[in-house]
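Protocol step 4 of 5: obtain the predicted structure for the target chain.
Materials: sequence only (see below). No template structures provided, no constraints applied. The aim of this step is simply to have a reference model before the mutagenesis design in step 5. Sequence pasted as it appears in the construct record:
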Amino acid sequence: MSANRESVVAPLNFYRPNYHVKTPEMRSPEYVQLSTAAAITLGLVPGTMHRTACTHCLNLLVTYPEGCRANCSYCGLARHREEARDYADRNFIRVDWPAVRYEEIIERVRRDDDRGQFERMCISMITHPNSDHDTLTLLRRWMAEVPRIPVSILSNPTTMKRADLETLHAEGADIFTVALDAATPEIFERTRGKTVDSPHTWAKYWQAIEWAAEIFGPEKFGIHLIAGMGETEREILEVVQRIRDLGGHNHMFAFFPEQGSMMEDWEPVPRDQWRRVQLARFLIDYAGVRLEDMAFDADGRVTGFGLERAELEAVIASGKPFQTSGCPGKTDEEVSACNRPYGDSSPSDIRSFPFALGPKDVGVVRRQLAGEDVGTLHESVED
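Step 4 output (structure tokens):
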């Protein structure tokens, strides 16, 4: 299968910054990488984002010149790319992550404190011997200097012990998340296990999820799932229900090929499949609907969502199921502070909306749910 090459370049209206300084010393905790959206919001790089002014989550990533030691087949940070591109210059979830001194980030956040742009900060770990220690160092400094903004940890279970989670919680981490990504053990093994010479295991990831449920408690942990890596809709929703039964939430991504990854030639998840999974995930996480209330066909596709038609139409009309799912902000637990603008699509084919949907946006989503092959640019822009 071949991906549409135009669809994997930088999003419309994004500048591709070259802010980082390439030196052997550019490593955490002195330096961190941050998402393009966060860099634009902080004023570190010039740029605008299609139909959204900023991101409300400051997404940070620990960084080391030797890079991530894992080799996940869909990831732009995977070890197999080390011959092709300097680590600090690799894209991750489709956008650049410039590297900046952590001190400068904190200074800018504190200086702009009255604007209240950020409702959450997230430290993303990678597979590296120093990642656990440096994540704790970053957390402690943040809590000492910017305690008003809560912190999420996007963890690396492979290197962590239960005591690490207990320490992060005691030091002020608000939410703990695990990027499970794959919906089945078989897909996990094929995309990020021994099959691709990567150290992660399904059992270890689920152990970390269960630890998080016990240590952080209900509503304070969650997982990432990527739809479209070969699973059925029922299989991914079974994981969604399992997490909800544990008390957590599900942060969903549409599979969209990362340029330079081992899966760069895979097709994006079909639009109708993605919209059904988004809607069902929202109903399980926030509307009290259970998997067993839903109906599926022989191929595992959702054919019934477990709600009366009028109730379902009201949920769709709200647009909330189709916004980016992630850790919450201050105003609405159903809407993510972590809106990750265009992290899993381009503005011409928005999969996770980083802004509230208008009536025309909802109209396009309805057409996609019905199986129509339509994108979002132009059709979805409000008058």
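Step 4 remarks: The longest strand covers residues 175-181. The radius of gyration is 20 Å.
Proceed to step 5.
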